[in-house]
Every structure is written in C-alpha cells, then in structure tokens.
Design goal:
The chain is α+β, with helices and mostly antiparallel strands. It has two domains: 5-179, Probable tRNA modification gtpase trme, domain 1 (Gyrase A, domain 2); 185-241, no CATH class. It contains four helices and 14 strands. The chain has a six-stranded antiparallel barrel with strand order 9-12-11-10-13-14. Strand 11 and strand 12 form a beta hairpin. The relative contact order is 0.15.
Length: 244
C-alpha cells in the first residue's frame, strides 16, 4: 500500500459528541457507513484527514500513518475532562475495487475508490494512484499539506464536509470560503505529456500558475491558480493541459 495507515480507537461515553465538536463532517452519517472528515487548525487549514469507522461501542479513525501520532496529540488537547479514550490499534486496512465484501465499507469519497476493510478482507492490487487521479482525490503528504484549505482540495465534492452541522475547529474560515468568496485556487485534473517530479511548479505565459502533483497514465492532479491557468502550460519538461 502506497498510503500506509494507522487505526486509532476512540471510546468512552463522550466519544461521539467529542468528535462532532471538532471535525468537518457529521458523525451521524456513521449510520450509512464510513464518514470522511478532517481536523483543521483554528485558522481553517488542514491538519489531518481520516475515515470514521463504526465499530460497536467504539469508533475507529483510519488515518495516514505519518499523521497518526500528531492526530492523537491534537485530539488529546481538546479532550479536557470528557470521557474519551484515544488509543492506537494493530488493525490493518485492506482496499479493493468492485462490490464491497461482507464487513467492508464503500469509500465515501468517490465510487471509483472502491472499498475499505478492517477485518482482514482480502484486497486487490489496483493502481490506486491512477484511481485517485481519475477521481481527483488528494492524498495526505502529497496534495494535502499543512498549507491546504479543504475546499480548495475538493472536500465538498468528496463528501468530507457538512455545512449544516454545528461548529467545529476551523468552521468559520471554511464557511466563509464556501459562502462569501469564489475559489480562485484549487485541485484540478489535468492531462500531462511527459513527466515531472511531484511538486514541480507549473507555468503559464511565464507566470507561476500552480503545482504538479500525482501523475498516472497521461493524467495528473494539479493545484492551479485558476486566473492564470490555461489550456497549455509547462511543468519542467512536461506539458500540462487544463480544460477548465
């Protein structure tokens, strides 16, 4: 798996309201399966994204392994006197395409991302980067960084934010971006001829127009400045085409 994961367990009588007060999505959606969400900074920037997994009286958080320790620390700071216990587990994540086997859950971000299992369901060896590029799904540590705003990363389209739930950390900035401004930057699918390292600056007409990220089969994900991006751009030696 090119996206190693860590599973955290959140238990205690206050676990659900505790998370509801902090994260971008509505925990009530757990009745339908996995919930994709993020924890933001008070300034509305990305801190971590994860899946909430229903598991009896516990909740599991499926998070990228490099972010796990920081997420535990951040959540613990908000815990105060609430009856909440946060622990790391040894549960493994499997992924597959096609219909979800018994006990597995459909990926809520996009149907093309298949399913996720937490009870040893055998996965398959899909080209997950190609699927992510096709579905315009960002990955933590690549397209998602501490400078990211989740709406620019597509979280509304990916079912990762709920604008009707109550307050959460970073909610004011996120709501303002949704209702009072037009996004001028964001993640977008592009065609690419040639290759360039992840993080290569994209230029259009001699001006910085964005950054090129994951590439697969002549397609790629790019973070673009929409006012400068055009149909014919360059990223190093590669040609980048955006249809807008």
């Amino acid at each position: 798996m090119n996206d190693p994961r860590k599973i955290l367990s959140v238990t205690g009588k206050d676990a659900l309201p505790f998370l509801q007060d902090l994260i971008t999505n509505d925990v009530a959606r757990l009745r339908d399966g996995l919930v994709y969400a993020a924890l933001l900074t008070p300034q509305g920037k990305y801190r971590a994204d994860f899946f909430l997994v229903p598991r009896g009286e516990a909740l599991l958080l499926d998070v990228a392994e490099p972010l796990a320790a920081g997420l535990v620390q951040a959540l613990s700071l908000y815990k105060l006197r609430r009856d909440v216990t946060i622990e790391e587990t040894d549960i493994d994540v499997t992924r597959g395409t096609g219909p979800a086997p018994e006990g597995a859950f459909a990926d809520p971000r996009d149907a093309r991302m298949g399913w996720r299992g937490y009870d040893g369901q055998p996965g398959d060896e899909a080209d997950w980067d190609a699927l992510r590029v096709a579905a315009c799904v960002p990955q933590s540590g690549v397209e998602l960084t501490p400078d990211s705003f989740i709406l620019e990363a597509g979280f509304e389209r990916l079912n990762g934010v709920d604008f009707r739930k109550g307050c959460y950390v970073g909610q004011e900035v996120t709501a303002r971006m949704k209702h009072k401004t037009e996004l001028r930057k964001g993640l977008a699918p592009v065609a690419v001829e040639g290759t360039a390292p992840v993080g290569t600056e994209i230029e259009a007409g001699g001006k910085a127009a964005g950054v090129l990220y994951t590439q697969a089969g002549g397609a790629a994900l790019a973070y673009l400045r929409f006012d400068r991006a055009g149909p014919d751009m360059t990223a190093g030696d590669a040609r980048v085409i955006w249809r807008g």
